[in-house]
Amino acid sequence: MIKTVWLLCICTLLASAIESQSTYENSNFTLSSALNGNGHQTLYNYNRFRVNEQIRDGQWFAVAIGDIENILGRELIQSNAYKIASAVTTDTPFSTQTKTYDYDEGQMYAQLYRLYAGYADEKHTVSLGLQKVSMGVGRIWNPTDLFNPKNPLALEPDEVYGSFALSYTYAFGSLSQITAVAAQRADKSFKYAGRAKGYLGMADAAIDVVSADDVSMIGYELEGELLETGVELRSEGGWFDDKVLDRKFIQGLIGADYGFENSFMLIGEWLHTSRTFEQELRFRIPSGALSNLVRSKDYVAISCGFQFDPLLYGTLSTILNAHDGSFYTGPVLRYSLEDDMLLGLGMMFYEGKSGSEFGALGQTYYVNFKITF
Predict the structure, then answer these.
(1) Torsion of CA 10, 23, 166, 173, to 10 degrees
(2) Which of 61, 177, 301, 368 could form a disulfide with 140 if both were Cys (CB 3.0 to 4.6 A apart)?
(3) How many CA atoms lie within 13 A of 91 on its CB side?
């Protein structure tokens, strides 16, 4: 029934739309990675061609985003790291990826990234389909996000799978709202979430609740300015019940960011958890809150960015495992060739003692070229 309603919404919008916008983007990465942490560098290429269609008719809207992805590099495709990554699929009641087409040196497939429709006015926002369910205020980590968790160690942390969900938000005012979400999963079960957000005089605050067959959470969000200093403080976290592992734990973060007048931006976050999951992660034991399982009780992250000139921007991110001293560092330079062309150079360094979390990972170097039209 839910699929039928969703398809009817899409068809109605397509038939009556008066505003539409089409965007095409091609992002290409050429990478050299030590896939197995043994120092041997593997050269490969990843290309993503994205089509983004947005339609609006008054308060009604629809969004469709699809990708054609190509992996060039036989050594990468045959590696264990790639096979493990390819085994991860969307937690949706239908497959969002086509079958893989194999050729001599690579693979190609198409993927549905987003497909949803809805209605939005001053008080009500409702959307149905494959979409991102946003929760949390963290910049680097989002422990309260049990729908579309991002990986801060990924090449593109903000590229996350969507959830097949019905989402409704009612705004009491400009600073207060409640949200309810029901997402259908791959096993046909549902994950439910509720969020109540308001302004408490000095900060925005929210209470989050998530319930599913394999995981439950009661969480919070806080975000506000520190005494008119320009420093933005934030915190999020909660109590988690991983029903698959039969483990209960607390996890949360405290963060801050500040933008200097010379365009220098500084972000910091501290992530703390009451329980670690070294063995569960090492042996890939199933979990209801997999993105929240960590090897250290404490992590510290710092990210900074600087605009060298109108065309050149640089960032540097570092994540430290406070238990074993290993760390990740990722410097990136981005140069705007034109308004719709971007050239990026990046590195992903992992350092630490033998047996440490980041010490077992190899280094990655890459060139990224993106064009939008």
Answers:
(1) -110
(2) 301
(3) 20
* Under 8 Å between Cβ of 48 and 67: yes
Amino acid sitting at position 365: Y
Q: Which of 235-239, 278-282, 298-302 has the lowest mean pLDDT?
A: 278-282
> Which phi and psi angles does 74 have, rounded to 5°?
-65, -35
Picking from 24-28, 130-134, 175-179, 358-362, which range would have the lowest pLDDT averaged per residue?
358-362
> Which residues, listed in sequence order, are joined to residue 23 by a DSSP beta bridge?
52
Contact 16, 57 (CB under 8 A): yes
pLDDT at 304 over 90: yes
Q: What is the value of pTM for the model shown? A: 0.92
Q: What is the pLDDT of residues 10-66, one digit of tens each?
A: 555 555 547 889 999 999 999 999 876 566 899 999 999 999 999 999 999 999 999
**Digit-coded pLDDT (tens) for 50-64:** 999 999 999 999 999
Nearest-angstrom CA–CA distance, 279 and 277: 6
Q: Within the chain, where are the H helices?
A: 2-16, 74-77, 80-86, 278-282
Tell me the longest C-alpha to C-alpha distance in the chain. 62
pLDDT in tens, 73-92: 999 999 888 888 888 899 99
Burial of 210-233, coded b for 16+ CB within 10 Å and e otherwise, reads bebebbbbebbbbbbeeeeeeebb
Which H or E run includes 64? strand 60-72
**Cβ pair 9, 358 in contact under 8 A:** no
Strand locations in 246-358 (E): 247-259, 265-273, 298-309, 312-321, 327-338, 341-351
Rounded to an integer, what distance in angstroms lies between the CA atom of residue 89 and that of residue 107?
17
Closest CA to 270 of 164, 105, 127, 139: 139
Backbone angles phi, psi at 294, to 5 degrees: -130, 160
